[in-house]
Amino acid sequence: MTITGRRSVRTGLLAACFALAACLPATQAPPPPAPAQPTALRPPSAAQPATQQPSAYSQSLAQRYARLEQHLQSQGLLRTDGGGPDTVFTDTDLLRNFERIAFYDEHTVSGARAANRPGALRKWTGPVRVSTSFGSTVPEAQRASDRALVASFTQRLARVTGHPVSMSANAPNFHVFFMTADDTREAQALLRSVSPNVNSATLSLIANLPPSIYCLVTAFGSNDSRYSYSRAVAFVRAEQPELMRRSCVHEEMAQGMGLANDSPRARPSIFNDDDEFALLTTHDELLLGLLYDPALRPGMGIDEARPILRRLTARAMGNS
Which of 135, 119, 93, 149 has the alpha carbon at shortest distance from 284? Predict the structure, then answer.
């Protein structure tokens, strides 16, 4: 199982985070967690209507995230242009970034920093069937917007990877769950339903999700190979404003396809802690295309893959 997400530098301040998280500025201390809202311990349905009003704590998070988005944009961050003349990269850059992002882990399942050594390549080998679910407090209008966002990005993933990725209500295996701070038990129930053997560390993370974590994804290997993904769940805090939710969907779904790490040298990229780009870039599309080239197999090590990647990156950049 892989858990991943974003860990960010906020205008020069590195916030203290854990478990693969994007973070709020360290100067903005979070309020104490609100008491958990009682909810039925069952997977939430995408059609389940909003039945609760958000707590005062959830409303305070929404205000904080709105201020954060405005602050980042005022600093020229959260770009949506996908890169341009100021972000030129070469096939050498692409190869280096792919190796760091696809073969390394940022964190262990417990949330600790992972050892600085490469692992094996991970990707989906079967069709990816995406669905959306919502916590009880997510407003109906926001649900419609987020469903459309996920559906559009799913189509983009299918195009850039050449892999079968589609929205499906029939036996979905990649769940995107939008939750507020009041939907913790529903989130745990969803994770249990997707993976009955999920470990206690992951359930504890979901149960005690601090404000500094506003999205994450956990992906599970198949019965045959832990390097071949067969299930994934992405969690997105619904209190976030629209652009931050879009950013979470882009990064967590892309990382849930197998690009599990970040690199400070990757540019233009969402796989970077600096928050310069909010949405998947042209560079990131190339990374996904490389990952799903048939020449790269799940479980392949970095030394075995490197000669293949040199050829693929040169071709991707038009140098062969």
Answer: 93
The whole-angstrom separation of Cα 265 and Cα 273 is 10
- The tokens describing 173, both together, are 């295996």
Q: Rounded to two decimals, what is the model's pTM? A: 0.84
Q: Show Cβ contacts of residue 105 under 8 Å, excluding neighbours closer than 6 positions.
A: 2, 4, 114, 119, 260, 261
Query: What element of type H or E holds 246?
Result: helix 242-256
The tens-digit pLDDT sequence of the chain (320 residues) is 666 654 433 322 222 222 233 333 322 333 333 333 333 334 444 455 666 788 999 999 999 999 999 999 999 999 999 999 999 999 999 999 999 999 997 654 444 444 477 899 999 999 999 999 999 999 999 999 999 999 999 999 999 999 999 999 999 999 999 999 999 889 999 888 888 888 888 888 888 888 888 899 989 998 888 899 999 999 999 999 999 999 999 999 999 999 999 999 999 999 998 999 999 999 999 999 999 999 999 999 999 999 999 999 999 998 76
Let me know if 144 is exposed, middle or buried by CB neighbors in 10 A (0-12, 13-18, 19+): exposed
AA letter at 291:
L
Please give the structure tokens belonging to residue 184. 């913790």
CB-based burial, 165-178: b 16+ in 10 Å, e otherwise = bebeeeebbbbbbb
Tokens of 278: 């909010």
- Dihedral sign of CA atoms 315, 318, 319, 320 in order: positive
**What is the Cα–Cα distance from 234 to 132, expressed in whole angstroms?**
10
DSSP string, 87-134: G---HHHHHHHHHHHHH--SB-TTSSBPPSS--B--EE-S-EEEEEEE
Strands 165-167 and 123-124: unpaired
Contact 247, 284 (CB under 8 A): no
- CA atoms within 13 A of residue 70's CA, in its CB half-sphere: 6
